[in-house]
Amino acid sequence: MENFFIVLLLLAIIGLSNVLNHLVPFIPVPLIQIALGVMIAIIPFGIHIPMETELFLVLFIAPLLFNDGRNASRITLWKLKTPILLMALGLVFITVFIIGYFIHWLIPTIPLPASFALAALLSPTDAVAVSAMSSRVKMPKIILHILEGEGLMNDASGLVAFNFAIVAMVTGVFSLLNASISFVIIAIGGFIGGAFLAYIIIRIRVLLRHFGMEDVTVHMLIQILTPFVIFLITEHFHLSGILAVVAAGIVHAIEKDHEKSPKVDLQIVSKSTWTVILYVLNGLVFVLLGIQIPSVASTIIKDPLFNNFVAIKYIVLITAALLILRFVWIFLSGSISLRIQKRRIAKLSFRQIALTTLGGVRGAVTLAGAFSIPYVLEDGSPFPERSLILFIAAGVILLTLIIASIFLPLIAKSDGDKNEVEKEKIKNWALIQMSIAAIRAIKNSMNDENRASALSIITSYNKKIHQLRSGNEEESSNAVKNSEVQIRLKALEAESQYIAKLGKNKEIDRETAYLCQEHIHRREMAITNQMKYRALVIGNTIKRILIRILHVLSPQKETMLQKRRKQYQKMVELKIEMAKAAINQLVKEMSSENKDILYLVIGEYNEWILILKKIKDKHTSKINERYERELKNKAFQAERDALQEMFEKGKLPVELVRKLRQQINIREVYWIEGKGL
């Protein structure tokens, strides 16, 4: 029962991390998940999950790398094979040698073989961490392909080098020739073995289909079990299970491309199932990493023999050495790649080299390998500085993640945002995709009863799409954005002054004046502070629900309903006059510099007036209003979902996402207030 509770808790943490990331999108999900894992480990719940390297590799890394192999572009990988191999093999062994000696020089108490073992653990980039980081940053495609290819292969080379170093440390025996031959056999054997096993599994699936077994569930189960089976079999023969699952993924991708009669149902189920599996496994990797960190750190922090400041200094210096070596190697290997490939690929710029350097984040594979370090040597003596090695490994992982989180977006931004025209195209494209998503959501909810309301909303979205494709959108520069905010605030100020004047002249009562000022405050919040606005909307929704419940339960509900209807009609009339006051003020503010923005805001106010007049004149519109409200809410949510999806896939910069979310909030608050919700 305890294990079941822990699993539920971990899954809840993964869900919570994505909710938090939605609120603070500038913090990457991996860091949030690590932080939540640390909190769970610190809070005295008695939760302890030991890190078992073999179980971790087969349970998490095998399916994740298998999926990466299935989705990797084989043409691109082949085209970039030279730089990828130089990174996945050359950089790993150079790192083991140079950083190993550097660690031994920096910390003499760590013997040279153990220093090589630590360097081997720190040499490979984590494919899961790279994928998680790159999905949040708009990076050049060539950099993404190199990082993906490197992440697919360098885990194997790093772990093999680590195992050789550990054997040398434990037994005191090492042969470079034997190690080199063993590495070639392990790597090539693992890759070929994985491809062969994948081919066998594919033949089994085809044979089942020939026997008439088209059950999607059975075929999906075989597909899920494939990476685990292949990893375990190849590891049983002391070959590289990591390269085996990568090869298996590539073979499955080839089979998918050449399959003559692919089952549509299987493709749909496969995509949905793997989406859930990857979502859970990616989250668990970083949550488990966070859970391990306190126990690793406490050993060093509480030990009086260690100076905490010096231990942290080791982490900073080793991380800096790793980044410098990686930068130099990428710079030098770029020239080597060009000579070998006869300039079939472009030379990387300084910014692209920096992106590739910072994209080499370390992840949970490094820490899992560190936990596999034995406690004692062959002669029974303790493994030297094992706790310090674990502490340094965990520190380097965190530091590389933090550095990448801070600097990757900054460097990628300057590389991606070429000019204002390009930004405008991206913005218009995003708005079109959001509108298409809203139309799709409305169509899915359309029926005979709400058809009229649905077609009306769809028409407005189609009009917006037409305008966007015609290029009739306002400019998106910072100056224009700030000007638009100021104009909207001036319009709201005019509304506020109009209400204050009515209250002063006793033309409206204090309660009505308060409700109008609250309405203005909500719209101001939508413009200036999105998070407070969303909290305010949620609070007001709860308050309205409670008021309606009280109305239903009240013995004088008929009298209260009549009073509410009169107040509602009066508020509609006041909102129309407030909008007119805002328009009059905006007309006075008009100049040649701001007329485009003013026309836009005035147009919104005129649209709002038309909506309010329509509501005022309606007598039998409650049912249609309910349908319209439900559909419009779905449309707004569909826009937000589409925007979030584009952001998570790295297609939009965070600044544009914030602006578009703000625009959705502004339109939503106009709609809500216009309907008197």
Structure description:
This protein has three domains: 2-416, Na+/H+ antiporter like fold (Up-down Bundle); 417-473 and 622-652; 478-617, no CATH class. Residues 415-419 and 472-476 have low confidence and may be disordered. It is mainly α. The protein is 81% helix and 0% strand.
Count every beta strand, where a strand is a DSSP E run of 2 or more residues: 0
Terminal CA distance: 46 Å
Count up the domains.
3
* Weakly predicted, low-confidence segments: 415-419, 472-476
Class from helix and strand fractions:
mainly alpha
Q: Could you tell me the strand content as a percent range?
A: under 5%
Give average pLDDT, whole number.
78
Instruction: Describe the sheet with the most strands.
Output: none
Shape: elongated
Which architecture of the largest domain per CATH? Up-down Bundle
Q: List SSEs in N-to-C order.
A: HHHHHHHHHHHHHHHHHHHHHHHHH
Cα-based radius of gyration, to the nearest Å: 31 Å
* CATH C-level class of the largest domain: Mainly Alpha
Portion of residues in helices? over 70%
CATH fold topology of the largest domain: Na+/H+ antiporter like fold
The number of helical segments is 25
